[in-house]
Amino acid sequence: MSEKLFGTDGVRGVANADLTPELAFQLGQAAGQVLLRQGGTPRVVVGRDTRRSGPMLGAALASGFCSVGVDVDVVGVAPTPAVSFFARTGDYGLGGIVSASHNPAPDNGIKFVGHDGFKTTEEFEAEVEGLLGSPLPARPQGKGVGSLSTGDGETESYVDYLVGLVPERLEGMRVAVDAANGAAYRLAGDVLRRLGAEPIETGVSPDGLNINADGGATKPATIQSFTQQTGAELGVAFDGDADRAVFSDASGRLVNGDCTIGIWCAYWQRQGKLNPPVAVGTVMTNGGFEQYLRRLGIGLERTPVGDKYVSDRIQETRALVGGEQSGHIIFREFGPTGDGLITMLQILRIVRRDGRKLAELVDEYEPWPQLLVNLSVERREGWNEGEKVAKALADAERELTGRGRLVVRPSGTQPMIRVMVEADSYPLRDAVAEAIIGAMHAELGGEVYSRVDLTHALGD
Question: pTM of the entire structure?
Answer without folding.
Answer: 0.90
